[in-house]
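Researcher: Going back to the complex we discussed earlier. I've cleaned up the inputs and rechecked each line, so this should be the final set. Can you rerun the prediction on the complete assembly and write out the structure?
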Amino acid sequence: MSNLANLQLTKDGELRHFLTPEGLDRLMLERILDTADSFVVVGNQEVKKVPLLRGRTVVNLFFENSTRTRSTFELAAKRLSADVLTLDINTSATSKGESLLDTLQNLRSMHSDMFVIRHSDSGAAHFIASQVTPDVAIINAGDGRHAHPTQAMLDMLTIRRHKGNFEPLTVAIVGDILHSRVARDQIHALKTLGCTDIRLVGPNTLMPYAIESMGVTTHNDMDTGIDGADVVIMLRLQTERMACAFLPSAGEYFRLYGLTTARLAQAKPDAIVMHPGPINRGIEIESAVADGSQSMILNQVGYGIALRMAVMSMAMSGQMQQRQSPIPPNNVTKEPRL
Amino acid sequence: MSFIIRGARIIDPSNDLDQVADLSISHGKIDVIGDLKNAQAQIDIDANGMILSPSFVDLHTCLRDLNQVQKGSIASETQAAASAGFTHLCPSPDTLPCSDAGSVIGMINHKAKAAGFCDLLPIAALTKDLQGKQLSNMDALSRAGCIGFSNASYDISDNTVLLRCYEYAATFGLRVFVQAQDQQLGNGHMHAGATATRMGLDGIPVIAETLSISRHLQFMQHSGVSGHFNQITSAAGVALIRQAKAQGLNVTADVSIAHLCFTDIEVEGYRSQYHLQPPLREESDRKALISGIIDGTLDAICSAHQPHESAAKCAPFAATATGMATYDMLVPLVQGLVEAGELTWPQAIKALSTNSSTIAQGLAGKICTGDTANLTLIDPTHSWLLTPSTQYSHGTNQALIQQKLNGRIRLTIKQGQSSYTM
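Model: Rerun complete. Updated structure for the full complex:
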């Protein structure tokens, strides 16, 4: 078992943190998808709640701005009946110089059961799960350019619900691979789920070093990159990339890598188009495609809640089981007897 | 104090000495090398199976102290150095405050002298406050005992300033020490390669080093200054140094013990103990660094010792301090290379002592009768556990903590006196 799997699983092999799909086996990823499938219907019920996390405290810690991910996590926790606290850390303690370690240990002392963490440093969630609060379930909501596992898994859920089996699929991921935490986790998940033809499309400035070592092919040309693809995943292009000399202009980028109706015709006729959002219309994707019949962009958002409910309930259950076995000593001083 | 060290394998690459013999020291000097069966001394050591080497000289180390006592003191770190076989150290000028004034150098030297474990041969700042703008008082600093000048890890981006630094140093025959890494391209957290890509960490490409080496070599050639490169990390970097030496340039270079033994794979799992600047590179680079030591392209092995307090390494990887405390594991790491058949002890001693002593203008590096005794006795097979209580450095950033290690210094002799005994 790899180190990453060790950290994320209980000794019985149950999920207790969800940091990245890397290191988790196919069975575990399929269980996450199956569980998410069962939660998709909850959103359609009149009462959109299940009691799985009743009495549990979930703290959303967003050290980096996010609207969509934060609100879907909050909704997912509420639909699981958890008590939810959402902290905007930018305006909170760490801006007063408190270290990440101290912030987290304080929150743990408030008997939190789960932290949902977004942080701009790669490995932040890994650091917290391994060294700061291993007895609190950690869900990685995005760390630097490393991982964004719930986004990657909701993309897998979208693909499975609309395309079925992963083995025969050709998946093209287009755009800013270098800065994308989503792309890395999509690659790990796709490979583990059996997909063998994963293509990355973009200019060399947006392609990470030695990315081929992850078992993918790289393409500078959009037309050959998406030729015959079953799934086309467009990544968001941050406009600040132009200022940092990664690209000359949004116009040139759209001309070379923008997904237009004409270009989409290179892919299979029944290909689906995905995007982790928020989309830049006219920069990476044409409106007609974003709003077209092949687009799954809004479906992805809906599946996002179900997927997050799935991993939150699974990790909470795993973490609770782990706590039944001897709890690692908390460095909080014991209450005096009165 | 007199010593007899019996039956050690005496290795001195400076005069092709590699033989099992006895060695005696009296009145601070090496007295006899040979058979001392009937002789007596105050300290008599059976050194069967051990290696007696000229003491080590470190061309790059950070001793902290001053405003960084939470990381280590000159007393604690020089003691750790003595326990690793060193008698002479060249501390880097990035002290706090930096070593750009005679008063700072005086303070450092005073503290080392009071502790008594090692003699310092400090490297002074090449520019004031290491800002890369104004020349430091090189002649005065040289008279204060500094043996070279460096801008530490701070690149001098202004070519005019760099040229004048080198021309001025060349005027007085002073040596410049360079940590070659382009500042902009070096703005990352580990080697740019497959591991960095998978972990989502900003990579530092090899060109960050080669570009800087080429640039500094041109300035050295133009100004005629003698230059030493600290901590070469890559195969391409070794090739550039080899080429420069073949062209007859007055350059030398070293590699840190960490770069000689570890690769970027160690960073896997965001292990901040392996967060180094310059970064650990790939196995092919490590192999080239070993070859560089063997063929003499790389003259020396330095410790690049950088102790830290535990909080400095306890954060998400990119936010952690760079550097490794290496003194406590240096000898076991060399022994590991010897056991793996990658290096021999004579090759290692040449790099840790003979050559580094020459570059640092130190008094060590030789075993000759009549010379002042600067020696270290290595027990290569001694097996021990590195723990907070067996380590000497104050630094908690010990990459091999709680591991069983092979090889330890039994005795270090500085100017005829014992500076460390196991």
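Model: Worth noting: Chain A is about 40% helix and 15% strand.
Researcher: Good, that matches what I expected from the previous run.
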